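Escalation from tier 1.

The customer reports that the assembly of four entities below gives different C-alpha coordinates on two consecutive runs. Tier 1 could not reproduce it. I'm attaching the input and our single run for tier 2 to review.
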Amino acid sequence: MPSTSALPDTGKEAAHVPQYLALRDRIAEGIESGKLAPGGRLPSERQLQLDSGAARGTIREALFQLEAEGLIYRRDRSGWYVSPPPVTYDPTRWAGFMTYVTEQGRTPSTETLSTEEVPAAPAVADIFRVAPGSRLYVVTRRRLIDGRAVLVERITVDPKLAPGLCEHSLNGSLTQILSSHYGLAVVRNRMDMRPCALVKDVADGLGVKAGTPGLLVVRTSLDKQGRVVEYDQEYWRHDSIRVHVDLTVKD
Amino acid sequence: MPSTSALPDTGKEAAHVPQYLALRDRIAEGIESGKLAPGGRLPSERQLQLDSGAARGTIREALFQLEAEGLIYRRDRSGWYVSPPPVTYDPTRWAGFMTYVTEQGRTPSTETLSTEEVPAAPAVADIFRVAPGSRLYVVTRRRLIDGRAVLVERITVDPKLAPGLCEHSLNGSLTQILSSHYGLAVVRNRMDMRPCALVKDVADGLGVKAGTPGLLVVRTSLDKQGRVVEYDQEYWRHDSIRVHVDLTVKD
DNA sequence: TAGTCATTCTGGACTATACCAAAACCCGAA
DNA sequence: TTCGGGTTTTGGTATAGTCCAGAATGACTA
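Tier 1 run:
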Protein backbone atom coordinates (compact mmCIF):
# COMPACT_ATOMS: atom_id res chain seq x y z
CA MET A 1 0.00 0.00 0.00
CA PRO A 2 1.67 3.18 -1.17
CA SER A 3 1.00 6.62 0.17
CA THR A 4 -2.65 7.58 0.28
CA SER A 5 -2.20 11.25 1.10
CA ALA A 6 0.15 13.94 2.27
CA LEU A 7 0.34 15.12 5.88
CA PRO A 8 -1.71 18.29 5.89
CA ASP A 9 -4.78 18.27 3.71
CA THR A 10 -3.84 21.65 2.32
CA GLY A 11 -3.48 21.43 -1.42
CA LYS A 12 -0.31 23.50 -1.49
CA GLU A 13 2.73 21.86 -2.99
CA ALA A 14 5.77 24.05 -2.48
CA ALA A 15 4.31 26.38 0.12
CA HIS A 16 5.68 29.85 0.30
CA VAL A 17 8.44 29.99 2.89
CA PRO A 18 8.59 33.26 4.78
CA GLN A 19 11.89 35.04 4.82
CA TYR A 20 12.44 34.64 8.54
CA LEU A 21 12.16 30.86 8.23
CA ALA A 22 14.64 30.83 5.37
CA LEU A 23 16.99 32.86 7.53
CA ARG A 24 16.40 30.44 10.39
CA ASP A 25 17.40 27.57 8.11
CA ARG A 26 20.63 29.27 7.15
CA ILE A 27 21.63 29.82 10.77
CA ALA A 28 20.48 26.35 11.82
CA GLU A 29 22.64 24.86 9.10
CA GLY A 30 25.63 26.76 10.41
CA ILE A 31 25.02 25.28 13.83
CA GLU A 32 24.38 21.73 12.71
CA SER A 33 27.35 21.69 10.38
CA GLY A 34 29.49 22.56 13.37
CA LYS A 35 30.62 25.90 12.02
CA LEU A 36 29.20 27.34 15.23
CA ALA A 37 30.21 25.31 18.30
CA PRO A 38 27.97 24.91 21.38
CA GLY A 39 28.53 27.92 23.59
CA GLY A 40 29.74 29.91 20.61
CA ARG A 41 28.38 33.33 19.87
CA LEU A 42 26.35 34.34 16.85
CA PRO A 43 26.98 37.57 14.98
CA SER A 44 25.05 40.49 16.44
CA GLU A 45 21.55 41.26 15.19
CA ARG A 46 22.79 44.37 13.43
CA GLN A 47 25.57 42.40 11.77
CA LEU A 48 23.11 39.77 10.57
CA GLN A 49 21.05 42.64 9.26
CA LEU A 50 23.94 43.84 7.13
CA ASP A 51 24.71 40.30 5.96
CA SER A 52 21.19 39.41 4.94
CA GLY A 53 19.66 42.73 4.05
CA ALA A 54 16.55 41.97 6.09
CA ALA A 55 15.09 44.33 8.69
CA ARG A 56 16.07 43.80 12.28
CA GLY A 57 12.54 42.70 13.20
CA THR A 58 12.79 39.90 10.66
CA ILE A 59 16.20 38.87 11.96
CA ARG A 60 14.80 38.70 15.48
CA GLU A 61 11.86 36.62 14.29
CA ALA A 62 14.34 34.04 12.98
CA LEU A 63 16.33 34.12 16.23
CA PHE A 64 13.17 33.67 18.34
CA GLN A 65 12.31 30.67 16.22
CA LEU A 66 15.71 29.08 16.85
CA GLU A 67 15.39 29.90 20.52
CA ALA A 68 12.00 28.16 20.69
CA GLU A 69 13.58 25.12 19.10
CA GLY A 70 16.29 25.11 21.71
CA LEU A 71 19.13 25.62 19.24
CA ILE A 72 20.23 28.98 20.58
CA TYR A 73 19.72 31.10 23.66
CA ARG A 74 20.36 34.72 24.54
CA ARG A 75 22.14 36.58 27.25
CA ASP A 76 20.57 39.93 27.88
CA ARG A 77 22.35 42.69 26.01
CA SER A 78 25.26 40.38 25.45
CA GLY A 79 24.39 38.30 22.44
CA TRP A 80 22.98 35.08 21.07
CA TYR A 81 24.74 31.79 21.80
CA VAL A 82 24.53 28.20 20.61
CA SER A 83 22.78 26.00 23.19
CA PRO A 84 24.63 23.13 24.82
CA PRO A 85 22.86 19.75 24.61
CA PRO A 86 20.09 19.12 27.20
CA VAL A 87 20.41 16.70 30.11
CA THR A 88 18.07 13.75 30.41
CA TYR A 89 15.94 13.56 33.50
CA ASP A 90 14.50 10.21 34.51
CA PRO A 91 11.85 10.74 37.17
CA THR A 92 11.61 7.02 37.86
CA ARG A 93 15.15 7.01 39.17
CA TRP A 94 15.74 8.49 42.57
CA ALA A 95 19.05 10.04 41.68
CA GLY A 96 19.10 13.73 42.45
CA PHE A 97 20.13 16.60 40.23
CA MET A 98 23.80 16.51 41.25
CA THR A 99 24.01 12.80 40.48
CA TYR A 100 22.43 12.58 37.10
CA VAL A 101 24.04 15.72 35.76
CA THR A 102 27.43 14.37 36.78
CA GLU A 103 26.64 11.01 35.22
CA GLN A 104 26.08 12.74 31.92
CA GLY A 105 29.52 14.26 32.02
CA ARG A 106 28.42 17.74 32.95
CA THR A 107 29.17 19.88 35.97
CA PRO A 108 26.25 20.67 38.29
CA SER A 109 26.08 23.37 40.91
CA THR A 110 23.47 24.82 43.21
CA GLU A 111 22.88 28.25 44.71
CA THR A 112 20.46 28.90 47.52
CA LEU A 113 18.68 32.15 46.72
CA SER A 114 16.59 32.39 49.85
CA THR A 115 15.26 30.50 52.85
CA GLU A 116 12.04 31.79 54.33
CA GLU A 117 9.37 30.82 56.76
CA VAL A 118 6.04 31.85 55.31
CA PRO A 119 2.36 31.35 56.16
CA ALA A 120 0.79 28.61 54.07
CA ALA A 121 -1.55 29.69 51.29
CA PRO A 122 -4.80 27.71 51.19
CA ALA A 123 -3.73 25.54 48.24
CA VAL A 124 -0.40 24.65 49.85
CA ALA A 125 -1.93 24.14 53.30
CA ASP A 126 -4.23 21.62 51.69
CA ILE A 127 -1.31 19.67 50.27
CA PHE A 128 0.47 19.56 53.63
CA ARG A 129 -2.78 18.97 55.52
CA VAL A 130 -2.09 21.85 57.89
CA ALA A 131 -4.22 24.86 58.78
CA PRO A 132 -4.02 27.76 56.32
CA GLY A 133 -1.58 30.29 57.67
CA SER A 134 0.66 27.72 59.38
CA ARG A 135 4.34 28.50 58.99
CA LEU A 136 6.19 26.51 56.34
CA TYR A 137 9.79 26.57 55.18
CA VAL A 138 10.25 27.77 51.63
CA VAL A 139 13.65 27.37 50.04
CA THR A 140 14.41 28.94 46.70
CA ARG A 141 17.34 27.56 44.79
CA ARG A 142 18.93 27.95 41.42
CA ARG A 143 20.68 25.05 39.78
CA LEU A 144 23.27 25.27 37.06
CA ILE A 145 24.90 23.02 34.54
CA ASP A 146 28.38 23.99 33.41
CA GLY A 147 27.81 27.38 34.98
CA ARG A 148 24.58 28.12 33.13
CA ALA A 149 21.35 28.40 35.12
CA VAL A 150 18.88 25.75 33.97
CA LEU A 151 16.21 25.75 36.66
CA VAL A 152 14.83 27.72 39.56
CA GLU A 153 13.02 25.74 42.21
CA ARG A 154 10.85 26.58 45.16
CA ILE A 155 10.81 23.86 47.78
CA THR A 156 8.28 23.79 50.59
CA VAL A 157 8.89 21.72 53.73
CA ASP A 158 6.87 21.40 56.92
CA PRO A 159 8.99 22.62 59.90
CA LYS A 160 7.28 20.11 62.14
CA LEU A 161 8.92 17.30 60.19
CA ALA A 162 12.29 18.97 59.79
CA PRO A 163 12.84 21.56 62.53
CA GLY A 164 15.87 23.76 61.95
CA LEU A 165 16.29 22.62 58.37
CA CYS A 166 17.50 26.03 57.26
CA GLU A 167 20.56 25.77 59.53
CA HIS A 168 22.03 23.24 57.12
CA SER A 169 23.84 24.01 53.92
CA LEU A 170 21.21 23.59 51.27
CA ASN A 171 23.50 23.64 48.28
CA GLY A 172 23.58 19.88 47.98
CA SER A 173 20.89 17.24 48.00
CA LEU A 174 17.95 18.25 50.15
CA THR A 175 16.40 14.82 50.06
CA GLN A 176 19.68 13.55 51.46
CA ILE A 177 19.50 15.92 54.42
CA LEU A 178 15.87 15.08 55.12
CA SER A 179 16.76 11.42 55.13
CA SER A 180 19.97 11.44 57.15
CA HIS A 181 19.15 14.17 59.68
CA TYR A 182 15.43 13.75 60.12
CA GLY A 183 14.84 10.12 59.16
CA LEU A 184 12.37 11.10 56.49
CA ALA A 185 12.33 8.42 53.81
CA VAL A 186 10.48 9.10 50.59
CA VAL A 187 8.57 6.10 49.30
CA ARG A 188 6.29 7.81 46.86
CA ASN A 189 6.64 10.59 44.37
CA ARG A 190 3.96 12.40 42.47
CA MET A 191 4.98 14.53 39.52
CA ASP A 192 3.15 16.93 37.29
CA MET A 193 4.77 18.38 34.22
CA ARG A 194 3.52 20.99 31.88
CA PRO A 195 4.92 23.39 29.37
CA CYS A 196 4.60 26.93 30.61
CA ALA A 197 5.91 30.43 30.13
CA LEU A 198 8.48 31.62 32.63
CA VAL A 199 7.15 34.52 34.66
CA LYS A 200 9.17 37.59 35.61
CA ASP A 201 10.70 36.36 38.89
CA VAL A 202 11.79 33.02 37.57
CA ALA A 203 12.89 34.42 34.23
CA ASP A 204 15.12 36.91 36.04
CA GLY A 205 16.64 34.08 38.08
CA LEU A 206 17.40 32.18 34.89
CA GLY A 207 18.62 35.24 33.06
CA VAL A 208 16.02 34.94 30.33
CA LYS A 209 13.26 37.20 29.12
CA ALA A 210 9.88 36.88 30.84
CA GLY A 211 7.62 34.72 28.72
CA THR A 212 10.34 32.41 27.45
CA PRO A 213 8.90 28.91 27.19
CA GLY A 214 9.81 26.55 30.00
CA LEU A 215 8.77 23.34 31.67
CA LEU A 216 7.18 23.31 35.10
CA VAL A 217 7.81 20.12 37.05
CA VAL A 218 5.93 19.83 40.34
CA ARG A 219 7.10 17.02 42.59
CA THR A 220 5.36 15.90 45.76
CA SER A 221 7.37 13.47 47.89
CA LEU A 222 5.57 11.35 50.44
CA ASP A 223 6.84 9.09 53.20
CA LYS A 224 5.44 5.76 54.35
CA GLN A 225 2.77 7.41 56.46
CA GLY A 226 1.65 9.46 53.50
CA ARG A 227 3.02 12.70 54.93
CA VAL A 228 4.28 15.28 52.46
CA VAL A 229 8.02 15.44 53.03
CA GLU A 230 8.86 17.84 50.24
CA TYR A 231 6.85 19.88 47.78
CA ASP A 232 9.00 21.09 44.93
CA GLN A 233 8.15 23.39 42.04
CA GLU A 234 10.89 23.32 39.42
CA TYR A 235 10.95 25.80 36.56
CA TRP A 236 13.23 24.53 33.83
CA ARG A 237 14.59 26.24 30.78
CA HIS A 238 12.87 24.40 27.99
CA ASP A 239 16.07 23.69 26.13
CA SER A 240 17.83 22.10 29.09
CA ILE A 241 15.61 19.19 29.95
CA ARG A 242 14.43 15.97 28.45
CA VAL A 243 12.27 13.63 30.48
CA HIS A 244 12.53 9.88 30.14
CA VAL A 245 10.14 7.34 31.62
CA ASP A 246 10.46 3.57 31.36
CA LEU A 247 7.41 1.59 32.38
CA THR A 248 6.69 -2.08 32.74
CA VAL A 249 3.21 -3.52 33.05
CA LYS A 250 2.83 -5.05 36.48
CA ASP A 251 1.27 -8.52 36.50
CA MET B 1 14.13 32.28 60.68
CA PRO B 2 12.61 35.04 58.61
CA SER B 3 13.47 35.82 55.01
CA THR B 4 17.17 36.07 54.32
CA SER B 5 16.96 37.41 50.78
CA ALA B 6 14.74 38.09 47.81
CA LEU B 7 14.45 35.74 44.86
CA PRO B 8 16.66 37.29 42.22
CA ASP B 9 19.82 38.92 43.40
CA THR B 10 19.15 41.90 41.18
CA GLY B 11 18.98 45.00 43.31
CA LYS B 12 15.94 46.38 41.52
CA GLU B 13 12.89 46.96 43.69
CA ALA B 14 9.96 48.02 41.54
CA ALA B 15 11.39 47.08 38.16
CA HIS B 16 10.11 48.89 35.13
CA VAL B 17 7.27 46.95 33.55
CA PRO B 18 7.24 47.14 29.76
CA GLN B 19 4.03 48.23 28.14
CA TYR B 20 3.36 44.91 26.46
CA LEU B 21 3.43 43.13 29.82
CA ALA B 22 1.02 45.64 31.30
CA LEU B 23 -1.26 45.02 28.36
CA ARG B 24 -0.87 41.30 28.87
CA ASP B 25 -1.97 41.71 32.47
CA ARG B 26 -5.07 43.61 31.45
CA ILE B 27 -6.14 40.93 29.01
CA ALA B 28 -5.21 38.11 31.41
CA GLU B 29 -7.37 39.71 34.05
CA GLY B 30 -10.29 39.80 31.66
CA ILE B 31 -9.85 36.09 31.07
CA GLU B 32 -9.38 35.09 34.68
CA SER B 33 -12.28 37.18 35.87
CA GLY B 34 -14.45 35.23 33.48
CA LYS B 35 -15.36 38.21 31.34
CA LEU B 36 -13.94 36.22 28.46
CA ALA B 37 -15.17 32.60 28.47
CA PRO B 38 -13.02 29.68 27.24
CA GLY B 39 -13.49 29.43 23.50
CA GLY B 40 -14.51 33.08 23.40
CA ARG B 41 -12.94 35.45 20.93
CA LEU B 42 -10.80 38.44 21.76
CA PRO B 43 -11.19 41.76 20.01
CA SER B 44 -9.14 41.97 16.82
CA GLU B 45 -5.59 43.27 16.98
CA ARG B 46 -6.61 46.47 15.27
CA GLN B 47 -9.45 46.97 17.71
CA LEU B 48 -7.10 46.47 20.67
CA GLN B 49 -4.86 49.00 19.00
CA LEU B 50 -7.64 51.57 19.04
CA ASP B 51 -8.58 50.71 22.62
CA SER B 52 -5.09 50.92 24.06
CA GLY B 53 -3.35 53.37 21.77
CA ALA B 54 -0.32 51.09 21.46
CA ALA B 55 1.22 50.11 18.14
CA ARG B 56 0.11 46.85 16.62
CA GLY B 57 3.53 45.31 17.16
CA THR B 58 3.21 45.94 20.86
CA ILE B 59 -0.29 44.47 20.91
CA ARG B 60 1.01 41.35 19.21
CA GLU B 61 3.87 41.08 21.69
CA ALA B 62 1.30 40.93 24.49
CA LEU B 63 -0.77 38.34 22.62
CA PHE B 64 2.29 36.16 21.95
CA GLN B 65 3.07 36.29 25.65
CA LEU B 66 -0.42 35.10 26.55
CA GLU B 67 -0.15 32.42 23.90
CA ALA B 68 3.13 31.17 25.39
CA GLU B 69 1.43 30.96 28.76
CA GLY B 70 -1.35 28.90 27.28
CA LEU B 71 -4.09 31.40 28.08
CA ILE B 72 -5.04 32.11 24.49
CA TYR B 73 -4.49 30.62 21.06
CA ARG B 74 -4.95 31.84 17.54
CA ARG B 75 -6.72 30.64 14.46
CA ASP B 76 -4.99 31.84 11.38
CA ARG B 77 -6.60 34.94 9.95
CA SER B 78 -9.63 34.34 12.08
CA GLY B 79 -8.76 35.73 15.47
CA TRP B 80 -7.48 35.10 18.98
CA TYR B 81 -9.44 32.82 21.33
CA VAL B 82 -9.38 31.91 24.99
CA SER B 83 -7.81 28.46 25.50
CA PRO B 84 -9.90 25.67 26.97
CA PRO B 85 -8.34 23.90 29.98
CA PRO B 86 -5.69 21.22 29.20
CA VAL B 87 -6.27 17.50 29.61
CA THR B 88 -4.14 15.52 32.01
CA TYR B 89 -2.14 12.70 30.56
CA ASP B 90 -0.94 9.94 32.83
CA PRO B 91 1.64 7.85 30.98
CA THR B 92 1.61 5.21 33.70
CA ARG B 93 -1.95 4.32 32.91
CA TRP B 94 -2.60 2.32 29.79
CA ALA B 95 -5.79 4.11 28.92
CA GLY B 96 -5.62 5.46 25.40
CA PHE B 97 -6.36 8.97 24.20
CA MET B 98 -10.06 8.31 23.60
CA THR B 99 -10.50 6.94 27.10
CA TYR B 100 -8.82 9.54 29.20
CA VAL B 101 -10.17 12.47 27.27
CA THR B 102 -13.68 11.11 27.71
CA GLU B 103 -13.04 10.52 31.41
CA GLN B 104 -12.26 14.19 31.78
CA GLY B 105 -15.60 15.16 30.34
CA ARG B 106 -14.31 16.20 26.96
CA THR B 107 -15.04 14.88 23.48
CA PRO B 108 -12.14 13.20 21.67
CA SER B 109 -11.91 12.44 17.97
CA THR B 110 -9.27 11.15 15.60
CA GLU B 111 -8.52 11.71 11.93
CA THR B 112 -6.15 9.58 9.93
CA LEU B 113 -4.16 11.90 7.70
CA SER B 114 -2.16 9.29 5.86
CA THR B 115 -1.04 5.69 5.83
CA GLU B 116 2.19 4.95 4.05
CA GLU B 117 4.74 2.22 3.60
CA VAL B 118 8.16 3.79 3.65
CA PRO B 119 11.76 2.58 3.72
CA ALA B 120 13.25 2.73 7.21
CA ALA B 121 15.72 5.50 7.91
CA PRO B 122 18.86 4.30 9.73
CA ALA B 123 17.74 5.64 13.12
CA VAL B 124 14.31 4.04 12.87
CA ALA B 125 15.69 0.81 11.47
CA ASP B 126 17.88 0.62 14.52
CA ILE B 127 14.90 0.93 16.86
CA PHE B 128 13.00 -1.83 15.05
CA ARG B 129 16.14 -3.92 14.58
CA VAL B 130 15.55 -4.29 10.86
CA ALA B 131 17.83 -3.55 7.94
CA PRO B 132 17.91 0.10 6.87
CA GLY B 133 15.59 0.51 3.90
CA SER B 134 13.14 -2.19 5.05
CA ARG B 135 9.53 -1.21 4.51
CA LEU B 136 7.64 0.03 7.54
CA TYR B 137 4.08 1.26 8.01
CA VAL B 138 3.83 4.90 8.95
CA VAL B 139 0.45 6.21 10.05
CA THR B 140 -0.09 9.92 10.55
CA ARG B 141 -3.04 10.93 12.65
CA ARG B 142 -4.49 14.08 14.11
CA ARG B 143 -6.37 13.95 17.40
CA LEU B 144 -8.85 16.52 18.57
CA ILE B 145 -10.54 17.52 21.78
CA ASP B 146 -13.91 19.22 21.47
CA GLY B 147 -13.19 19.71 17.80
CA ARG B 148 -9.84 21.43 18.29
CA ALA B 149 -6.67 19.71 17.08
CA VAL B 150 -4.34 19.09 20.02
CA LEU B 151 -1.77 16.69 18.63
CA VAL B 152 -0.36 15.23 15.46
CA GLU B 153 1.25 11.84 15.72
CA ARG B 154 3.35 9.70 13.48
CA ILE B 155 3.14 6.02 14.32
CA THR B 156 5.56 3.49 12.91
CA VAL B 157 4.75 -0.23 12.91
CA ASP B 158 6.62 -3.20 11.49
CA PRO B 159 4.49 -4.85 8.78
CA LYS B 160 5.97 -8.22 9.69
CA LEU B 161 4.22 -8.01 13.06
CA ALA B 162 0.98 -6.56 11.78
CA PRO B 163 0.49 -7.41 8.08
CA GLY B 164 -2.38 -5.57 6.45
CA LEU B 165 -2.75 -3.17 9.35
CA CYS B 166 -3.71 -0.32 7.08
CA GLU B 167 -6.83 -2.17 5.95
CA HIS B 168 -8.38 -1.46 9.33
CA SER B 169 -10.03 1.76 10.37
CA LEU B 170 -7.35 3.60 12.29
CA ASN B 171 -9.55 6.26 13.79
CA GLY B 172 -9.84 4.48 17.11
CA SER B 173 -7.31 2.85 19.38
CA LEU B 174 -4.40 1.44 17.44
CA THR B 175 -3.07 -0.46 20.43
CA GLN B 176 -6.46 -2.12 20.62
CA ILE B 177 -6.23 -3.30 17.02
CA LEU B 178 -2.69 -4.58 17.46
CA SER B 179 -3.80 -6.53 20.48
CA SER B 180 -7.08 -8.00 19.25
CA HIS B 181 -6.17 -8.68 15.61
CA TYR B 182 -2.49 -9.50 15.85
CA GLY B 183 -2.09 -10.74 19.41
CA LEU B 184 0.53 -8.11 20.16
CA ALA B 185 0.47 -7.32 23.85
CA VAL B 186 2.47 -4.37 25.12
CA VAL B 187 4.25 -5.06 28.40
CA ARG B 188 6.72 -2.22 28.38
CA ASN B 189 6.60 1.40 27.40
CA ARG B 190 9.46 3.83 27.03
CA MET B 191 8.66 7.50 26.83
CA ASP B 192 10.70 10.57 26.08
CA MET B 193 9.28 14.01 26.53
CA ARG B 194 10.75 17.32 25.65
CA PRO B 195 9.58 20.81 24.96
CA CYS B 196 10.08 21.69 21.33
CA ALA B 197 9.01 24.06 18.62
CA LEU B 198 6.44 22.76 16.18
CA VAL B 199 7.89 22.54 12.71
CA LYS B 200 6.04 23.54 9.55
CA ASP B 201 4.33 20.22 8.72
CA VAL B 202 3.06 19.58 12.22
CA ALA B 203 2.16 23.20 12.82
CA ASP B 204 0.04 23.17 9.66
CA GLY B 205 -1.72 20.04 10.87
CA LEU B 206 -2.52 21.71 14.17
CA GLY B 207 -3.46 24.97 12.54
CA VAL B 208 -0.81 26.95 14.38
CA LYS B 209 2.11 29.03 13.22
CA ALA B 210 5.40 27.20 12.68
CA GLY B 211 7.58 27.68 15.72
CA THR B 212 4.80 27.65 18.27
CA PRO B 213 6.03 25.88 21.39
CA GLY B 214 4.89 22.30 21.80
CA LEU B 215 5.67 19.09 23.62
CA LEU B 216 7.15 16.12 21.84
CA VAL B 217 6.27 12.78 23.40
CA VAL B 218 8.01 9.76 21.91
CA ARG B 219 6.60 6.39 22.99
CA THR B 220 8.17 3.05 22.24
CA SER B 221 5.94 0.07 23.04
CA LEU B 222 7.53 -3.33 23.49
CA ASP B 223 6.03 -6.78 23.82
CA LYS B 224 7.18 -9.66 26.02
CA GLN B 225 9.88 -10.67 23.56
CA GLY B 226 11.22 -7.15 23.50
CA ARG B 227 10.00 -6.49 19.98
CA VAL B 228 8.99 -2.94 19.13
CA VAL B 229 5.25 -3.12 18.56
CA GLU B 230 4.63 0.56 18.08
CA TYR B 231 6.85 3.63 17.77
CA ASP B 232 4.87 6.79 18.25
CA GLN B 233 5.96 10.41 17.93
CA GLU B 234 3.30 12.73 19.34
CA TYR B 235 3.49 16.47 18.82
CA TRP B 236 1.23 18.21 21.31
CA ARG B 237 0.07 21.76 21.50
CA HIS B 238 1.78 23.01 24.61
CA ASP B 239 -1.41 24.37 26.12
CA SER B 240 -3.34 21.13 25.79
CA ILE B 241 -1.32 18.69 27.83
CA ARG B 242 -0.29 18.13 31.38
CA VAL B 243 1.65 15.01 32.29
CA HIS B 244 1.17 13.26 35.59
CA VAL B 245 3.35 10.51 36.99
CA ASP B 246 2.81 8.70 40.29
CA LEU B 247 5.70 6.57 41.47
CA THR B 248 6.16 4.22 44.38
CA VAL B 249 9.49 2.90 45.53
CA LYS B 250 9.57 -0.81 44.95
CA ASP B 251 10.86 -2.85 47.85
C1' DT C 1 -32.99 26.28 -0.80
C1' DA C 2 -28.38 25.74 -1.82
C1' DG C 3 -24.48 27.22 -4.02
C1' DT C 4 -21.33 30.93 -5.79
C1' DC C 5 -18.78 35.07 -5.79
C1' DA C 6 -17.16 39.50 -4.42
C1' DT C 7 -16.19 42.20 -0.41
C1' DT C 8 -14.53 42.95 4.09
C1' DC C 9 -11.96 41.69 8.01
C1' DT C 10 -8.19 39.38 10.24
C1' DG C 11 -3.80 37.87 11.26
C1' DG C 12 1.07 37.17 8.88
C1' DA C 13 5.12 39.22 7.19
C1' DC C 14 8.12 42.95 6.45
C1' DT C 15 10.47 47.62 6.40
C1' DA C 16 12.54 51.57 8.60
C1' DT C 17 13.21 54.12 12.47
C1' DA C 18 14.12 55.69 17.30
C1' DC C 19 15.57 55.60 22.01
C1' DC C 20 16.99 53.11 26.28
C1' DA C 21 19.68 50.38 29.68
C1' DA C 22 22.81 47.01 30.54
C1' DA C 23 26.84 44.48 29.09
C1' DA C 24 31.25 44.52 27.19
C1' DC C 25 35.30 46.73 26.12
C1' DC C 26 39.21 49.60 26.38
C1' DC C 27 42.23 52.87 28.19
C1' DG C 28 44.37 55.35 31.69
C1' DA C 29 45.43 55.93 36.66
C1' DA C 30 46.90 53.92 41.04
C1' DT D 1 48.86 44.28 37.86
C1' DT D 2 44.43 45.89 39.22
C1' DC D 3 40.87 49.01 39.61
C1' DG D 4 37.69 52.89 37.71
C1' DG D 5 35.35 55.21 34.49
C1' DG D 6 33.95 56.52 30.07
C1' DT D 7 32.74 54.72 25.32
C1' DT D 8 30.85 51.43 22.28
C1' DT D 9 28.05 47.59 21.33
C1' DT D 10 24.18 44.80 22.09
C1' DG D 11 19.70 43.38 22.78
C1' DG D 12 14.88 45.30 24.48
C1' DT D 13 11.02 48.07 23.58
C1' DA D 14 8.11 50.85 20.83
C1' DT D 15 6.18 53.43 16.76
C1' DA D 16 4.05 53.72 12.15
C1' DG D 17 3.47 52.27 8.21
C1' DT D 18 2.83 48.66 3.90
C1' DC D 19 1.29 44.70 1.41
C1' DC D 20 -0.56 39.99 1.29
C1' DA D 21 -3.46 35.72 1.60
C1' DG D 22 -6.83 33.28 3.81
C1' DA D 23 -11.21 33.36 6.69
C1' DA D 24 -15.64 35.06 7.29
C1' DT D 25 -19.61 37.19 5.65
C1' DG D 26 -23.38 38.45 3.15
C1' DA D 27 -25.70 39.37 -1.04
C1' DC D 28 -26.92 37.50 -5.31
C1' DT D 29 -28.01 33.66 -8.40
C1' DA D 30 -29.51 29.23 -10.14
